[in-house]
Write a sequence for this structure.
């Protein structure tokens, strides 16, 4: 399994440009999410999905859109990039959401390698 | 979800046990304690989680106090590759709308 993959690894945008960050997982996980991480800070949840066709907002959703047409893919769209969106973006997935289990691979989140985005 | 408090940074000698504390004094009865770590420029990696009892796996041990207001992550024999930021997170396990609340974590530096 490739796990969680993200593309691109690096991206530079000009203010006002739009782009899509790609995220894919091959573990048949139901739950996927997008986080952003600013320097010296923890991760903040942007959007998440509990399954194909279902998405919801996280802590910092403004300026971002998501869709979940398949179980495997969860792209994040920046509609009109702003310098405040300069950050490292991580995609994560897990088998289930919130289900109690002592097993590490059910609600444990697996993270992709990240996309480093700079908006000028 | 309850918030957590961790020291900003810690040092540990290579080969020694690294003990990372976490305070979660407002934790609720149905909230689990999770530990993740993030090695520089990589995505976070799950380490361990627990509710009441101490837990151990191939990576680490988790010691939770009886009143559950604090916990300690133990890396028994730290190596240079354990240098990372360690995040302590509490969350409800059976909440269908849960969100992980990430703090700034503890930057652990393993010294040779």
């Amino acid at each position: 399994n490739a796990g969680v993959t993200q593309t691109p690894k690096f991206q530079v945008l000009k203010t006002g440009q739009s782009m899509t960050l790609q995220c894919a997982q091959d573990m048949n996980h139901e739950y996927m999410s997008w986080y952003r991480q600013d320097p010296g800070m923890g991760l903040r949840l942007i959007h998440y999905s509990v399954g194909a066709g279902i998405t919801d907002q996280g802590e910092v959703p403004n300026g971002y859109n998501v869709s979940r047409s398949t179980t495997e893919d969860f792209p994040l769209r920046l509609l009109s990039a702003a310098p405040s969106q300069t950050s490292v973006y991580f995609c994560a997935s897990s088998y289930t959401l919130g289900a109690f289990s002592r097993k590490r691979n059910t609600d444990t989140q697996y993270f992709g390698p990240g996309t480093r985005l700079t908006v000028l | 979800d309850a918030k957590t408090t961790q020291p900003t940074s810690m040092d540990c000698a290579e080969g020694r046990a690294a003990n990372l504390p976490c305070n979660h004094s407002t934790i609720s009865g149905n909230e689990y304690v999770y530990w993740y770590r993030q090695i520089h420029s990589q995505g976070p990696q799950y380490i361990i989680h627990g509710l009441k009892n101490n837990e151990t796996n191939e990576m680490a041990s988790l010691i939770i106090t009886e009143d559950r207001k604090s916990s300690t992550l133990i890396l028994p024999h730290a190596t240079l590759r354990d240098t990372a930021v360690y995040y302590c997170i509490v969350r409800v396990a059976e909440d269908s709308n849960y969100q992980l609340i990430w703090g700034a974590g503890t930057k652990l530096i393993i010294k040779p």
User: Anything to note?
Assistant: Chain A touches chain B through 28 residues (CB under 8 Å).
